[in-house]
Specification:
168 residues; alpha/beta; Rossmann fold; 26% helix; 29% strand
């Protein structure tokens, strides 16, 4: 990761209307207090020294997902030039938690933000070779213009917040 990657990521996200929060593991809970709407559900976060805050419960049923205003998930990595996060699937249920709430908070380590798609493709290929072939590249809030005017939130969150752990 170059020193320009995080500012480029923030700029790309801003162009998409995606909120961006920089925080450390120590300040993580306080940073989420400002952006989590209740009720909130999440999946375990794989970052050392970081866990879901008390205000976020682990999703354990479809009802939890349907009732959630916010879903908190890890992102395997980010793609700075696209303002995208790569959500890796698995038994934790990252995909549904990222899609049901009106707001999706994607948490990514600064060290896992890649400059561009050319850097992401080898990583995606390695994930597939290693058996982690499920991934969604999410870029901003869900949107469709199938029926005319652009409408957001039809098949996913209307708001996305990317939380970057600067010390990871």
């Amino acid at each position: 990761m170059s020193t320009d990657t995080i500012p480029a990521f923030e700029s790309s996200l801003s162009e998409l209307g995606v909120d961006f929060v920089r925080t450390t593991a120590r300040e993580f809970d306080a940073a989420l207090d400002d952006v989590v709407e209740q009720p909130a559900v999440g999946v375990p976060l794989p970052f050392a020294g970081v866990s879901l805050p008390d205000a976020v419960s682990e999703a354990s049923s479809v009802d939890d997902l349907e009732d959630a205003a916010t879903g908190v998930t890890p992102a395997g990595y980010g793609i700075a030039s696209y303002g995208s996060v790569v959500l890796q699937g698995g038994p934790e249920g990252v995909e549904p938690v990222s899609l049901y709430g009106d707001t999706h908070l994607a948490v990514v380590a600064a060290s896992d933000v890649l400059p561009d798609m050319a850097d992401a493709i080898p990583r995606i290929a390695a994930d597939i070779r290693d058996g982690r072939g499920e991934a969604v590249i999410a870029t901003g809030a869900s949107a469709t213009a199938d029926m005319g005017a652009l409408v957001q939130g039809v098949h996913g969150p209307t708001n996305v917040v990317v939380v970057v752990l600067t010390d990871r």
